[in-house]
Structure formats: structure tokens, C-alpha cells
């Protein structure tokens, strides 16, 4: 097993800058997700690691060896693609065996490894079937088995779940994580789905316009986003107009909200305060808070998202309430909303 | 209540009429050819009473008595084989390269492959023959001098068949998957790409062979004796034998097409049917 490092990788396609100096170190046995919107450069990074694209500058290092100039077929990287990439002319066992044959592994060893890996992905009984006889989820499990059979230095997953329906996606995501942990294989996972990234990763790299905006654990990325882009991209976020009081507080209308995040805004400057729904709460009438009117309630099992339109500001925010609000709140009710600014993110008012 | 089935039946009449028209359009000339080849009743005397008279295989037998039949057929089959090999060797890598590395050039390449349509075969033969005579007379004297012409003539059909085969298999992903598994370009082509293009490669080969086996103008212009030139000359001497030859060629081609259709069903489909049958048993 080995680590994978991108060192100052820059890549352009004509006038478009796909990656601008990407630095990233995937530690030995770690699973990092690259998360970002379409066109942010995450797939380009993956393809550069795989050797399908060449970087304009910078280097890719695996286990302290610079592999930037190695062709794709000599990099020993297992890859699972977004589209079902199984060879249609080969059955499941032959697909899994493909990489072993190219490596001239002897027949007995090949058969043993194919059997072992098919057992790992629980597809032993599908060995003689052809790809078109399998469901999408099964095909991606075969693709995963095929990538793992070669015992790669690094596993690269290019949105492998995006073509699957929600239920299969969730179970396969858990299976990928189980197998990755079991084998302890260094893995780079590309996705645009935040739920996927939060659920599967040791660390997440949030990308935008060819740059890494933040690299951190799922909890760090969610709870302490580095900037407004990350805050908005991960989870939902309320935007409340505010005025900076000092380094430790902002004012929303007449309500002073204590904050902890350091910032460069001057006192009196107008900003947008970005606050998670769970950092807002409905408090008793008369307590300090912002007045608003309940406009909607979305019950989500263990909690309810209450939509509140703030008075004067005319801003719609989402308030996270634990449990059900049935019989307690109704659309049109006047409520007071308290804002916890401890995790709030600031951005200049537009 | 009853108007809906009636309307439904009426709505089917139109498509059925079109199908019937198409059937008559395609089969009437074939039936007429078969009658001309196998029956000696003159057309003006053909009626319900004479319909079953004078059917004979004499015209077909005379084909096989012709001393040039087998040699010209052999030459044309050799030309077809050579043309197929060269065409595939040139066009498969080209089409793959365009798809994988130069997708923006696809429109240009498609345009270039259509050009043989707009150049009349006579002009092509006359123009290129002048070059051959001046620079490679030794090659021009060979019957195989026809092969480059036939490669060009077959381009519009073969490139499209190959292109369609590539588009059908998401070639980029297959190539990337194969290479990530440690396969070089040769192995990737041999084990991951070409087997999945088998149908289109065989279609392309069949179209190429069809062009060669039916091409007359260039062969005559370059004074080469091939199967089509023999057929033309034979038709001039023996009308019924000539029609019988056309019929025989048609039957042979149809049988060949049928065999190829069966053989070119993807291996995966054939094997899958087998596993399904085993599962049911």
C-alpha cells in the first residue's frame, strides 16, 4: 500500500484552466473524496493520477516514486468509472481476470484471486454471466472487483455510484467503504454528491474552479467550512444580512449575535451571515431573537425543517427543530428565532 | 364502444399498405428475374395457362460451362479479400484515433470519406491510371492495381459502418479501463475493442466485398477482367444465362449475408442465451 500525492499540478484545456496548482496528499490507506460542482477539475485530477491525461506542470507521486511520466498501463492503479465499463464480450470472471492476464499471473493464481475477489464483492454466483445480464449495481461491483483484483497501489473511483438508483447507491457506497477499509487501500473518490462524500470519506477535498477550497474530515468540512463556497456546497445554509459590530459579534437588525470565526471585516461593514439550520432555533416569545412567520414545515422523521420568513429583512430561512412540530406550529404563526453564530461564516454583502 | 376497435383497425391499414407496397416493390423484380432465368416461355406468351411450362436450369448450367466463370470469380474474390484487409487496416485505426484523440476532426474525416461519391469512377480511374502508367507501370499491369481504387470506392460505406461500431461501445471508457488494468495499446485493441466491434467490422467487410464484386466501370476502364466484366460480356452473348447469373449471384449473396448475420451475433449474446437455457433447465 502507498500514498498518492499531487504536487502543484496544473492543467489547461485550451483557454480553460482545469487545475491550478493542485496540492493534495492521500495518505496510506486513506479514502479522500474530491467533491465539487461539474467542471471544478476533480475528474481531471483523477485522470491525471490514472495517466489518462498529462499535467502541464507538477508531479504525481505514489509511494515516493514520481510516476508523472509513466504511461497509464504501467501505473498499477485500479479504476472504477462512472459509466459501466465492463468489457461486454467477456463474462464476469473474465472481466475480473483481465488485469491479471495482462500481468501474466499464472492460471492457478488467477483463478484463486478471481474467486476470492468475487467472494469479497458477493458475486460468486454471477461468475459466468455477461455484463448485460447484470443490474447496474452488480456491474459496478464487478468493476470494483476487477479494479481490486490487480492489487493496485491506489484505487481511483470516478463517480462510480452516479448512474445507480438511490437505494443501490447507498448500499454500494457502504460496500465500497467496507472493502476499502478491509483491504486498507489508498483511495481517491470523485463525486459531486455531498452525501456520498460525507458518508464514505476519511477526508474530503472540496474543489472549485480548479482549486482545492478546503481539505478536512467530513465533520470539519461541515462544521467549520473554510469559506462561503464550501459552506454553501456542503449541507444547507441560511443567509442573513448583518452588520459587523466587532471581531466577536455581528448585528442582525437589533439583535447582537456573538461569533467566534476570525474575519477581516471592519466594524459597521455589511455582510451576509451564513448559518446552518441546526444553528438556529425557535425560542420562547420574549427571548432575544429575530421575529418571523412560519411559512412551511417539512417533517423528516427525526426532525422538522421549519421555514420562517424573517420580519423586516423579508428573508426566508430554514430552522431545524428536533422531532415533530405537528400541533405545535402552524403556517402563519409568529415566532422568535435565535441564531447561534459560533459556526457562522461571513461573506461581503452583495 | 365499437368505434375504438374499428378506428384502431383502420389506423393499421395505412402502415400495412406501405409495407405491402414495399414488399411488391422489392420482390417483383426478383420474381421477374427468377422467371426470366428459369423459364423459357417468351413474355408475350406468358399467361395462366403457360405459367407452369418450360421451367429449366439450362441457363444456370451454361454459367458453369463458361471457361471464364471460375477464374473471374476467383479474381474478384481475391480482390475483395485484399480490399477488405487494406480497408480495415487503414480505417479502423483512423476511426479509433479520431474518436479518442481528435474528436473535433470527426466532421472533416466524415466529409473526406464521402468524397468518392462525388468523383465519377471513370474520372477516378482515368486520372489515377495516368499516374500509374507514368510512375509504376509494373503495378498497373497487375489485376491487383484495382485494389486501391476499390478501397477508395468503399470508403463511404466502410467508414460509416466502423464509425457506428465505435459509437456503439463507448470506446473511450473501454480503452481507459483496459489501460488502467495494465494492457498496452495492442492488447487493448485485440481484447477490449475489436471483439466488441465484431458486428460493425463484419458489416464493413461485407459492404466492401459487395462493392468489389459489383464494380464494373473501373475494371473496364483499366481493361481488367473481373467477375462483373465477365457477367456483362456473358449477358451480351446469352440473355437467359446472364439473367441466371444475376439470380445466382443474388442467391449466393443472400445466403452469405444470412450466414454472416448468424456468425456475427455477439459472442456474449450467444453465451448468455446458453446460460439462460441452462438456468431454465
What does this 3D model show about the protein?
The complex is a heterodimer of chains A (350) and B (281). Chain A has 350 residues and is of the alpha+beta class. In chain A, 24% of the residues lie in helices and 35% in strands. Chain A contains eight helices and 20 strands. In chain A, the strands form four sheets. Chain A has a six-stranded mixed beta sheet, sandwiched between helices. Chain A has a five-stranded antiparallel beta sheet with strand order 13-12-11-14-20. The radius of gyration of chain A is 24 Å and the shape is elongated. With 281 residues, chain B is mostly helical. Chain B has two domains: 3-45; 66-280, MetI-like (MetI-like fold), CATH 1.10.3720. Chain B is built from 14 helices and no strands. Chain B has helices at residues 3-38, 58-65, 69-100, 106-118, 121-135, 137-140, 146-167, 171-180, 185-193, 198-214, 217-221, 227-237, 239-263, 267-280. In chain B, helix 3 (69-100) runs antiparallel to helix 12. The model of chain B has no long low-confidence stretch (mean pLDDT 87).
> For the largest beta sheet of chain A, what order do the strands appear in spatially?
6-7-8-3-9-10
- Give the overall form of chain B: globular
CATH architectural label of the largest domain in chain B:
Orthogonal Bundle
Determine the oligomeric state from the structure: heterodimer
Annotated CATH homologous superfamily of the largest domain in chain B: MetI-like
Q: Which strand-content bin applies to the residues of chain A?
A: 35-45%
The structural class of chain B is: mainly alpha
**Content-based structural category of chain A:** alpha+beta
The CATH class label of the largest domain in chain B is: Mainly Alpha
Q: How would you spell out the order of helices and strands of chain B?
A: HHHHHHHHHHHHHH
Outline the biggest β-sheet of chain A.
6 strands, mixed
Q: Got a strand count of chain B?
A: 0
Calculate Rg of chain B over CA atoms.
24 Å
Instruction: Determine the N-to-C terminus distance of chain B.
Output: 45 Å
Mean pLDDT of chain A: 92
Helix content of chain A: 10-25%
Shape of chain A: elongated
Amino acid at each position: 500500500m502507498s500514498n498518492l500525492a499531487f504536487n502543484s499540478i496544473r492543467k489547461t484545456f485550451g483557454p480553460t484552466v482545469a487545475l491550478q496548482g493542485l496540492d493534495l496528499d492521500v495518505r496510506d490507506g486513506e479514502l479522500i473524496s474530491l467533491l465539487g460542482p461539474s467542471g471544478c477539475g476533480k475528474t481531471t485530477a483523477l485522470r491525471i493520477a490514472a495517466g489518462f491525461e498529462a499535467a502541464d506542470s507538477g508531479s504525481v507521486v505514489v509511494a515516493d516514486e514520481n510516476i508523472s511520466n509513466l504511461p497509464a498501463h504501467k501505473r498499477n492503479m485500479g479504476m472504477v468509472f462512472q459509466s459501466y465499463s465492463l468489457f461486454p464480450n467477456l463474462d464476469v470472471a473474465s472481466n475480473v481476470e483481465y488485469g491479471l492476464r495482462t500481468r501474466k499471473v499464472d492460471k492457478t493464481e488467477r483463478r484463486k484471486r478471481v474467486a476470492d475477489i468475487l467472494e469479497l464483492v458477493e458475486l460468486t454466483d454471477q461468475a459466468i454471466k455477461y455484463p448485460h445480464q447484470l443490474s447496474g449495481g452488480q456491474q459496478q461491483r464487478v468493476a470494483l472487483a476487477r479494479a481490486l483484483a490487480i492489487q493496485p497501489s491506489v484505487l481511483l473511483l470516478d463517480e462510480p455510484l452516479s448512474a445507480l438508483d438511490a437505494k443501490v447507491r447507498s448500499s454500494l457506497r457502504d460496500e465500497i467503504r467496507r472493502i476499502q477499509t478491509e483491504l486498507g487501500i489508498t483511495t481517491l473518490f470523485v463525486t459531486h454528491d455531498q452525501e456520498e462524500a460525507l458518508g464514505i470519506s476519511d477526508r474530503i477535498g472540496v474543489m472549485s474552479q480548479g482549486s482545492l477550497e478546503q481539505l478536512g474530515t467530513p465533520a470539519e468540512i461541515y462544521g467549520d467550512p473554510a469559506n462561503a463556497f464550501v459552506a454553501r456546497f456542503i449541507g444547507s445554509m441560511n443567509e442573513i444580512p448583518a452588520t459587523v459590530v466587532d471581531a466577536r459579534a455581528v448585528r442582525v437588525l437589533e439583535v447582537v449575535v456573538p461569533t467566534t470565526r476570525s474575519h477581516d471585516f471592519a466594524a459597521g461593514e455589511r455582510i451576509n451571515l451564513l448559518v446552518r439550520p441546526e444553528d438556529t432555533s425557535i425560542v420562547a416569545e420574549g427571548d432575544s431573537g429575530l421575529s418571523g412567520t412560519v411559512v412551511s414545515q417539512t417533517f423528516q422523521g427525526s426532525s422538522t425543517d421549519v421555514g420562517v420568513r424573517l420580519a423586516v429583512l423579508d428573508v426566508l430561512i430554514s430552522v431545524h427543530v428536533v422531532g415533530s412540530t405537528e400541533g405545535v406550529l402552524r403556517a402563519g404563526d409568529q415566532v422568535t428565532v435565535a441564531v447561534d453564530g459560533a459556526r457562522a461564516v461571513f461573506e461581503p454583502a452583495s | 364502444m365499437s368505434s375504438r376497435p374499428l378506428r384502431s383497425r383502420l389506423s393499421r391499414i395505412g402502415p400495412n399498405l406501405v409495407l405491402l407496397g414495399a414488399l411488391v416493390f422489392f420482390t417483383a423484380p426478383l420474381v421477374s428475374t427468377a422467371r426470366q432465368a428459369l423459364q423459357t416461355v417468351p413474355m408475350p406468351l406468358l399467361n395462366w395457362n403457360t405459367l407452369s411450362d418450360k421451367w429449366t436450369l439450362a441457363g444456370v448450367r451454361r454459367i458453369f460451362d463458361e471457361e471464364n466463370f471460375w477464374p473471374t470469380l476467383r479474381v474478384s474474390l481475391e480482390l475483395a479479400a485484399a480490399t477488405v484487409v487494406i480497408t480495415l487496416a487503414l480505417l479502423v485505426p483512423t476511426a479509433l484515433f479520431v474518436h479518442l484523440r481528435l474528436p473535433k476532426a470527426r466532421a472533416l474525416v466524415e466529409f473526406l470519406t464521402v468524397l468518392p461519391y462525388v468523383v465519377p469512377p471513370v474520372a477516378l480511374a482515368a486520372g489515377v491510371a495516368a499516374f500509374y502508367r507514368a510512375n509504376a507501370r509494373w503495378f498497373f499491369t497487375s489485376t491487383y492495381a484495382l485494389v486501391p481504387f476499390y478501397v477508395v470506392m468503399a470508403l463511404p460505406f466502410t467508414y460509416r459502418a466502423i464509425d457506428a461500431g465505435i459509437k456503439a461501445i463507448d470506446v473511450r471508457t473501454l480503452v481507459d479501463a483496459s489501460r488502467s488494468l495494465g494492457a498496452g495499446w495492442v492488447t487493448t485493441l485485440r481484447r477490449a475493442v475489436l471483439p466488441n466491434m465484431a458486428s460493425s467490422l463484419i458489416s464493413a467487410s461485407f459492404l466492401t466485398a459487395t462493392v468489389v464484386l459489383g464494380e464494373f466501370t473501373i475494371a473496364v476502364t483499366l481493361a481488367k477482367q473481373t467477375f462483373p466484366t465477365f457477367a456483362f460480356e456473358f449477358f451480351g452473348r446469352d440473355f437467359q444465362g446472364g439473367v441466371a447469373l444475376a439470380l445466382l449471384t443474388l442467391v449466393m449473396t443472400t445466403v452469405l449475408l444470412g450466414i454472416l448475420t448468424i456468425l456475427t451475433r455477439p459472442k456474449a449474446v450467444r453465451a448468455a442465451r446458453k446460460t439462460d437455457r441452462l438456468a431454465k433447465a
